[in-house]
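Example protein was shown:

_____
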Amino acid sequence: MTDSLPNRPNTEQSHPKAAGFDQLPGREILSVLLESQISAIEAVRTAIPALEKGAAAMEAALRNGGNLVYAAAGSSGMQALADGLEIPPTFGIPAARIHILRAGGFDNMTVPKEGAEDDAEAAARDAEVIGKDDCVICLAASGNTVYPVTIMDIAKARGAATIGMSNNPDTKLLAGADIPVLLPTPPEVIAGSTRLGAGTAQKVALNLMSTLLGVRMGHVMDGLMVNVATSNVKLRARAEKIVRDITGCDSATARGSLEAADWGVKEAILIASGAQDLAQATSYLNAADQNLRSALADLNSGKAPN
């Protein structure tokens, strides 16, 4: 199949295997869909340098007292929501430091609100939460959606750092962002259904960027979530295992250290490794800018925390 409108955005073009797609056996349909998803993920590879810059901007915002703000509409809004909501429990970053702005808001999300993405006035109202020290991540498959574009313009005017993510080149989000992130995904098997490949690529890109943020903030060591929230039974069991894995202590010592640390995992690891109490563990972490590996090195060397 050839597209009769070659100037269409890539996300609106027809997929090479679209002709007769609906007449294929179910397994073949699923195979075509899967291959298109894999191709979409591969498209993220070219964005790795931009994602590294994005993670650095996110880190700078948090370290300088600012917040992270996500802004999107439709399927992109769901990807933003999924990423932003997972940062606090995974990395222990306070939920109050994360703002997620979604066209149409969050009331009754089971009802589609397609027109909301064109509401510039609502975008301006939602953008009131943005400050000059924030990092604002605006995304849209098309790259020209009114809601995130309006929010990005406001963020730039206020001096906030901006990351613009689009699946099409030459778009407003890319042209206006401090850090443009192009995810050049191929056309969708169902033309324009960007909840498919484009949405998958956005999810992967956001996951990569926010995970690198967690690493750079010192909340990951040897692939373990050393600042994980401990708000339920499952997470407390995970915290105990993390303390055991890093220190080599037994379960009783790990649990006792966690209790002594008010269930702070980094602090518990330091206590299990020889810190006298929570106050000293906290001092080591503060001196190491919350980097557990550095704090452990200082503790093990006998260096007193500053």
